[in-house]
Write a structure and sequence with these properties.
This protein is α+β, with helices and mostly antiparallel strands. The chain contains five helices and 14 strands.
Length: 290
């Protein structure tokens, strides 16, 4: 007889073993490392919400990492939900304090930095080319089509910023939440070992964050602006920006500016920077979706 709580048993899916927190701490929490504390919980609503609440109420050390095997109320941008089967992906948040080294007006680069770091870490550890859709989506190619395999959410909390990442790792086609979704496994990953992937992404994040912070948050001087542009699938395409308030603008995405905004060149010859909004990739002026 199958026990009634089999779906929540740590070993109920042998293809998706639990994370080994001892091994992760041993590999990541070094004296010279950014990462100071790492916790893995079986399930939670949202790692971002949990860390943000702790940062506001009790304070956190920079470099705190919270990982969940399952999120029941994961959040994306614009409060969209993010759900996936237990242990099928990486669901984690980190707490960073750029502090006095970086002017607050430059902190908006942190989620974009996390995207660059995640793409680099996944390319190295999973062997999957991961592109960036402005501002905070991770794209992979599945059967010749761009699919969203991950997302990033940043929010101010306490004296710093909490950055959450959700990455679909082993989701099968019948488990995808939407036809536009994908996973590393479906994109042909050479490894779906979540410990390997998590270590790679966190080490990449440490590298990029250290360089950016050391440059005073200057995205150009640290190489971050160029790296984001090089990996951004949104650039050089016709897109529709759906702006807060219900307005929209169509144009060619021509640049990422020094503030991390997407610059659109519109039909009337103007260049319009977009700081927030949903971006829809279009095949051309006719408006076919990609």
């Amino acid at each position: 007889m199958t026990p009634p709580d089999a779906s929540h048993n740590r070993w109920s899916d042998l293809d998706r073993p639990p994370l080994n927190v001892t091994a992760l701490r041993r590999g990541l929490l070094r004296p010279e490392s950014l990462w100071r504390e790492l916790e893995v919980v079986e399930t939670t609503g949202s790692t971002n919400s949990d860390l943000a609440e702790r940062a506001r109420s009790e304070g956190l050390a920079e470099g705190t990492v919270l990982v969940a095997e399952e999120q029941t109320a994961g959040r994306g941008r614009l409060e969209r939900s993010w759900t996936a089967p237990p242990r099928s992906g990486l669901f984690f948040s980190v707490y960073l304090e750029p502090g006095d080294d970086v002017p607050v007006e430059r902190w908006g680069w942190v989620p974009l930095l996390a995207g660059v770091a995640a793409a680099a870490g996944l390319a190295k550890s999973a062997g999957v080319d991961t592109a960036l859709k402005w501002p905070n989506d991770l794209l992979v190619t599945v059967e010749g089509e761009e699919r969203k395999a991950g997302g990033i959410l940043g929010e101010f909390a306490g004296d710093g910023i909490v950055v959450g990442l959700g990455i679909n790792v082993s989701l099968r086609a019948d488990e995808l939440p939407a036809p536009t979704a994908g996973s590393l496994a479906l994109a042909g990953a050479v490894s779906t070992d979540r410990e390997t992937l998590l270590r790679a992404v966190l080490r990449s994040l440490e590298h990029w964050y250290g360089g950016w912070k050391g440059a005073g948050g200057d995205a150009a001087a640290s190489g971050l602006q160029a790296a984001y542009a090089a990996g951004c699938a949104t650039l050089d395409r016709t897109v529709r920006a759906e702006l807060p308030g219900g307005n929209s603008v169509v144009g060619q995405a021509v640049a990422i500016d020094g503030d991390g905004r997407l610059v659109l060149s519109t039909d009337d010859g103007l260049q319009q920077p977009v700081s927030a909004g949903d971006i829809v990739h279009l095949r051309g002026a006719a408006g076919g979706l990609t």
